[in-house]
């Protein structure tokens, strides 16, 4: 029996392969059915979303229009305040400039005016060495010399004796 072929083995092998193919076809059919059901559910869900959006669209459009109107009104109101604010800032700058000029004039006048004129004709003073100028006899000086042109505060104080 050495030359005999066992056809049962080959037939069993053939039927096993055919069974695998049949199982594979069944599995593909189940997958196709599942895919079709999934596609149907996805389509239904997309249709529901579209229907919901369609229902909400008029309200959303109305809200968007209201928002744009409110933004336009806000921009208009802000634009109406630009000119008054600019005018107020300009007036404030002018007032600050005038104040600075006045302060400068006061400081200049105080530096150039004798102390006797600042205090009603009587010089102020208590004791020598306290920052007040006295005459040689120990009496307060009634007038002070004016500041010379180009003279700074330190040299004026040295010259007049106010820097004791």
What radius of gyration results from the CA coordinates? 53 Å
Largest sheet: none
Q: Total number of β-strand segments?
A: 0
Average pLDDT for all residues = 78
Stretches where pLDDT falls below 50 for ≥5 residues? Answer: 122-139
Write up this protein.
- With 164 residues, the chain is mainly α.
- The protein folds into 2 domains: 49-112; 114-164, no CATH class.
- 72% of the residues lie in helices and 0% in strands.
- The N and C termini lie far apart (146 Å).
Annotation keywords:
single chain; 164 residues; mainly alpha; 0% strand
Précis, in short:
With 164 residues, the chain is mainly alpha-helical. The protein is built from three helices and no strands. About 11% of the residues have low confidence.
Give the topology, please.
Layout: H1 7-112, H2 115-118, H3 153-160
